[in-house]
Amino acid sequence: MKWITRERPKIDRLACPWLIKRFVDAEAVFMYVPADQVMSRAAAEGATPFDMVGVEYTHYDDQCTFDYVIKKHHIEDPAVHIMAPIVRGADTDRHDLASQASGLWALSAGLAYNEPDDQALLEKGMMLYDALYSWAKYLQHVKHTQQPVENQLIDIFKQFLQQEKDNKKIPSWARELKEIIQDQVDTNLNLSLKGLSETLQVHPAYLSREFSKYFDDLSFGEYIRKLRIDKAVQLLSSTDHSLTEIAYLTGFSDQSHFTRIFKKFTGKSPSAYKKDMIKSKK
């Protein structure tokens, strides 16, 4: 059976081929093509698309495609179920799900960086997941450090990691997303969650669910509207543009829509807000 997905695989697009070849179809063939060619090539080749939005083999809720393959094909192997949260955590940037998730992401990103050929990358990925499977099946309780002093150092390090976790640091994708939005909100009035998720290589469902945690407790749409209102306030105070012009410059469909959202965020209409600013200056 043929399978097809986006080029330049890292986590799910390497883990799923390993899972399928080891537990579903040993003769399976995998193809990596540009994202905009996946569906047309799938139809032409009679291949099953995977890890793409809108296809059967993809993410559901907080589960990644690796989880779906396990469920779809009733894979009961205990070692595979130990691997699942590691793969899911690495693929969705939820490294809290398993302590090995960040390591899997680091190795996968490094492999992809070093190997430009996707088929060669798949071969190396198969070795990586064979190794992870062997650890999960035979070695997960074996410790590298055996001396008492070493164990004390490990315990101290674990406490340090827990303190770092308790600090609830903002993940790298959230920092990068904030910079992207800030850079583009003035010039790109059609920012979309889907487009940003592709830029960040973070699944849109995960991005949508996690967004409010790191962006003032606002949804993606609310946050973008807030930035546009902030821009409108700046234009009201520093230019002589009409309200219709400001509505256009900040990405609102018309003045009435602009007025309604502005009042929701500031408690005043744009005209009343501008009058109050003029009074305060005087």
UniProtKB/TrEMBL annotation:
It holds the Pfam family HTH_18. InterPro entries: ChrB_C, Homeodomain-like_sf, HTH_AraC, HTH_AraC-typ_CS, Tscrpt_reg_AraC-type_HTH. Keywords: DNA-binding, Transcription, Transcription regulation. Residues 175-276 form the HTH araC/xylS-type domain. It comes from the Bacteria. PANTHER family: ARAC-FAMILY TRANSCRIPTIONAL REGULATOR, HTH-TYPE TRANSCRIPTIONAL ACTIVATOR RHAS. This is Chromate resistance protein. It comes from Chitinophaga qingshengii. The lineage of its organism: Bacteria, Pseudomonadati, Bacteroidota, Chitinophagia, Chitinophagales.
